[in-house]
Amino acid sequence: MLACPRRVAALIALAITAFLMVGGAAQAAVPPSSGENAKCALPPASDDDAISILGRICDRRDTPQSPVEGVEITVEDSAGKPVGTATSGADGTFEIKLPGSSVSNLGKTFVVKVNEDTLPEGTSLAKSDLERKVAINLDNDQSITFPIGEAPGQSTGKGVQALQLLIGGIVFSVLLAMAALGLSMIFGTTGLTNFAHGELITFGAIVAYTIDQLPGAIRIGGVNLTVVVALIAAFFISGAFGWLNDAALWRPLRRRGTGVIAMMIVSIGLSIFLRNVFQFFSGAQSHNYSQYSAVKPWEIGPILLTPKELMVTIVGVSMLVAVSLLLQFTRIGKATRAVSDNPALASSSGINVERVIAVVWIVGTALAGLSGALLGLTQGFDYQIGFKILLLVFAAVVLGGLGTIWGAMVGAFIIGIFIELSTLFIPAELKFVGALVVLIVVLLIRPQGLLGKAQRVG
After folding, report:
1. Confidence band (pLDDT; 50, 70, 90) for 293?
2. Mean pLDDT over residues 96-125, rounded?
3. 87 φ/ψ sector (left φ>0, alpha ψ -120 to 50, else beta)
4. Distances, alpha carbon 23 to alpha carbons 86, 164, 167, 223, 301, in Å
5. Structural domains for the chain
6. Does residue 387 carry a pLDDT above 50?
7. 257 in helix, strand or coil?
8. CA dist 107 to 99, 100, 144, 215, 318, Å?
9. Is 444 exposed, middle or buried (0-12, 13-18, 19+ CB in 10 A)?
């Protein structure tokens, strides 16, 4: 019964390798400009107890963006009192340490201001862009940018902007769908609303980053495959971590007859525990993988598309298709659907229910881990990356219909694309709010979700 998942996992590993080898080749085919990696990159986060404002000032009218040197920046507290100043360096970056310890600054709001008189001749910022408010809600360094001019592809109308945002929405939706599919499978077979699912996403990102940071590089035929190996390791190690979760915690609770509400509360405690463990080992600062961090985009008319985005999308879609086929046409997939519909009847018909649940945990957690690793590849990550998108994962699952694989994927694409396109009309800081409003409206009209009665787990 386990032979099918092994074959599918092997095919998935080969697919990841093949697709990201193409991505590595594509990156090598478009070499970055001299010094491109160093230009307009945020300074590294500090490891001391103070919180720093890390920033950069770049001229987006140049390709690639060029740093703007000699600009004076001031940080003021909520009372308007200056607490620090800095001048952007040759690489366009600046760093201002806030006074006091990180704990003493939690909950405070600071204003970062640009001295307009120090901007180079021929450059300017809109009045609304000359100052930014920074709320200190976490005890890690805060990043901020002051871009000058319009980014390439943004000087046209709303139509082109919408297409560019649609591309970003699709990439994010694919990763959200992988995480939502794993959550939906686990809920469908066990009834567990797992609030620690966000930490399973983070776990995959941390595993991939750990492999990526090992000394040396893994090369085959002159192509650097370090990140490829890191992603494959994240997939399989996350699956093993999911099996360990079930064997050490959830299976004993099921055997004792623990109710789903009590198990949900346990998952909240597990989430808090894992999040603190991740912070202890990985720190609070953001991390980026060594490869695919500064890939030159392809220009398709007015639209910009990076090889990284294309490869991430291909790998994600391949995973979604592979798991869908596994659930539809294999013995373990049919057994999974049977357990989801009626565990007692499935057990009486000879199906090993605990074995099926273990396989579901392995596959669901492997999907979540790979989703986190790919999400970290596209935008970097910190120890809270899974926690930050957990609400969106739940929204996707509930919107599509609890326990349905198709509902999880449809809900993820609706949520992912909507939150990106909504930034055409609302501030980017509110885009998640818009997605949750859509969720509320849909559930008021159709409480079971869009595909809630269509099919149960497959």
Report:
1. low
2. 81
3. beta
4. 39, 20, 17, 10, 21
5. 52-148 (2.60.40.10), 158-445 (1.10.3470)
6. yes
7. coil
8. 14, 13, 18, 39, 43
9. exposed
Of 15-29, 85-99, 190-204, 436-450, the poorest mean pLDDT is in 15-29
Taking the C-alpha atoms of residue 166 and residue 157, their distance in angstroms, rounded to an integer, is: 14
Q: What is the model's pLDDT at position 296?
A: 65
29 vs 40, more confident = 40
For the segment 417-451, what is each residue's pLDDT rounded down to a tens digit? 988 888 888 777 777 887 778 778 877 888 777 77
Compute the average pLDDT of residues 33-42.
Answer: 48
- Report d(CA 402, CA 190) in Å as an integer: 12
Higher pLDDT, 174 or 380: 174
Q: Which two tokens stand for residue 246?
A: 């079930």
Q: Dump the DSSP string for 105-167.
A: HTT-EEEEEE-GGGSPTT----GGGSEEEEE--SSS-EEEEEEESPPTT-SS-HHHHHHHHHH
Structure tokens at 311: 């490869």
Helix 331-341 vs helix 307-329: crossing angle, to nearest 10:
70
Q: What is the DSSP string of 34-92?
A: TTTTTTTPPPPPP-SSS-EEEEEEEETTSSS-EE--S-EEEEE-TTS-EEEEEE--TTS
pLDDT at 2: 39
pTM, full prediction: 0.69
Interstrand relation of 142-148 and 52-59 (parallel, antiparallel or unpaired): parallel
- DSSP state at residue 381: B
Determine the Cα–Cα distance for residues 352 and 317; give it in Å rounded to an integer: 30
How open is the CA angle 207-213-219, to the nearest 5 degrees?
A: 105
Judge whether residue 252 has pLDDT over 90. Answer: yes
**Alpha carbon distance 347, 308 (integer Å):** 45
Residues contacting residue 368 through CB under 8 Å, at least 6 positions apart: 178, 179, 182, 183, 197, 200, 201, 203, 204, 238, 242, 386
In angstroms, the CA 442 to CA 411 distance is 11
Residue 16 has pLDDT above 50, yes or no: no
Look-up of token digits 């201002």: 96
